[in-house]
From TrEMBL:
Keyword Signal: yes
UniProt name for this protein: Maltose ABC transporter substrate-binding protein
The family this protein is said to belong to: Belongs to the bacterial solute-binding protein 1 family.
Name of one Pfam family that matches: SBP_bac_8
UniProt-listed Gene3D superfamilies: Periplasmic binding protein-like II (3.40.190.10)
Gene Ontology cellular component list: ATP-binding cassette (ABC) transporter complex, substrate-binding subunit-containing
UniProt cross-references to InterPro entries, sorted A to Z: SBP, SBP_1_CS
Taxonomic source organism: Anaerosacchariphilus polymeriproducens
UniProt keywords, alphabetically: Signal, Transport
Domain of life, source organism: Bacteria
GO terms of biological process kind: maltodextrin transmembrane transport; maltose transport; transmembrane transport
């Protein structure tokens, strides 16, 4: 989807909220009307009943956690799948009273949801619980001006998968070692590549782009006007991308997320030794009885690679009739019981700092690596122009990787393309 269309869609959603609130429907609560009790124990309202919008494909998990919550708190929770765009759906349904009390959404939609007035500021006691139990990196994804507006529930980032039939000893800790081993192993005619990655994609490329300090949209990912393309750090990152061509002699067009299934198949067939990916691939590999391991991303030039991280957050609607009960349910999603159900039902990683009592996850040697890697990961920026990054980066990485464009030229093109997108707004 083109970036301009995305922005137009969001603007229309925001306009709809304004129209609906002006037609006698529910209005966005003001600071004076928001529930901000500071009591240590938050209690559900009498007769409270909640609607929870779970992520697509996670209805079973949603129902299981709702049942567990009801047993403990006596509050009935109805669960529905939200569809792919819960935030825009809430823009339409929230003001009319038909939206969810709690809904799940990816962290990069936080700014849009917050600025549209969809999110309830969380009670101080809930905020304290979240900060105490949840990984600090995840907490930042729901924070605005020191206040929290959501509960980070699950996390994803990259780890380095390795094929134990090829990597006989301990997995490599440096790209230097991988490069040397690739030179001896690679055989393009037989589709044998020691190391593969979807380098054309902005997510998969980020560990290489960020290696020398490049940060997308500023250090904290909040500078919507400055993508960081006009920096020496970004240019050095493109140099790393260009250097990968030596060990991945494949066309850039064949190294993108759309062709990831082919790269994964090469790994499954034992023709690729190392493949960076996320926890979403682990379950499939186990089901296919692939003998593999997971380790953290390697260093290169003595510097640690860092991956983008994605966080799924639970938000309490500003329009809910039961703000106390809704906050109780949202915070329950990070309990050990709910974290265990998250692993059991959808094989995902909780945002909790401590997973020692999370059934299943605590004994899963592969997924535990991703939980550890998340501590050093970088949450994808939630600025409104983040969509521009994906568009710009692919148009630059491909020619740089193919060595048809120098890193310096690539950096200039990236900034020029970004400026053109801003100009088209």
């Amino acid at each position: 989807m083109k970036s301009k269309k995305i922005i137009c869609k969001l603007m229309v959603g925001i306009m709809i909220v304004g129209v609906l609130t002006g037609c006698g429907k529910k209005v966005i609560p003001t600071e004076a009307t928001k529930v901000q009790e500071d009591t240590k124990e938050l209690k559900a309202e009498e007769g409270a009943k909640l609607l929870f919008w779970a992520k697509p494909g996670e209805l079973e998990y949603g129902k299981a956690v709702a049942e567990s919550f009801q047993k403990e708190y006596g509050v009935k929770v109805t669960v529905q799948e939200s569809g792919l765009d819960a935030v825009n759906k809430m823009m339409l349904d929230g003001p009319s009273g038909n939206g969810a009390d709690i809904f799940m959404a990816a962290h990069d939609t936080f700014s849009t949801a917050h600025d549209a007035g969809l999110l309830l500021e969380l009670n101080n006691s809930v905020t304290e619980k979240i900060k105490e139990q949840v990984n600090e990196t995840a907490v930042k994804s729901v924070e605005k001006a020191g206040k929290l507006y959501g509960v980070p529930v699950s996390v994803e980032t990259y780890g380095l998968l390795y094929n134990k039939n090829l990597v006989k000893d301990e997995p490599a800790e440096t790209m230097e070692q991988i490069v040397e081993e690739a030179k001896a192993y690679n055989n393009p005619g037989e589709n044998k590549f020691w190391y593969l990655t979807a380098v054309s994609d902005g997510f998969a490329a980020y560990p290489f782009l960020s290696l020398d300090g490049f940060s997308v949209f500023g250090k904290n990912g909040t500078d919507n006007d400055n993508p960081g393309f006009k920096t020496p750090e970004f240019e050095k990152g493109l140099e790393n991308i260009s250097a990968l061509k030596e060990i991945i002699p494949i066309k850039a067009e064949d190294l993108k997320m759309e062709t990831a299934s082919q790269l994964e198949q090469n790994f499954k067939e034992g023709k690729t030794a190392y493949y960076p990916s996320g926890p979403w691939l682990v379950k499939t590999l186990k089901e296919d009885n692939i003998d593999f391991g997971v380790t953290t991303l390697p260093t290169w030039g003595g510097k640690q690679m860092k991956s983008f991280a994605s966080i799924q957050n639970a938000y309490v609607s500003a329009y809910t009739d039961y703000p106390k009960a809704a906050q109780l349910f949202a915070s329950y999603l990070i309990s050990e019981e709910a974290a265990s159900l998250l692993y059991e039902k959808v094989y995902k990683i909780t945002s909790r700092k401590d997973i020692s009592n999370v059934s299943g996850l605590k004994d899963d040697e592969q997924l535990r690596v991703f939980a550890e890697a998340f501590k050093d990961a970088v949450p994808m920026p939630a600025v409104k122009r983040m969509s521009y990054y994906w568009t710009v980066i692919q148009g630059v990485i491909n020619p740089v990787f193919e060595q048809k464009m120098t890193p310096t030229e690539g950096a200039r093109k990236a900034q020029k393309d970004f400026d053109a997108l801003v100009e088209s707004e």
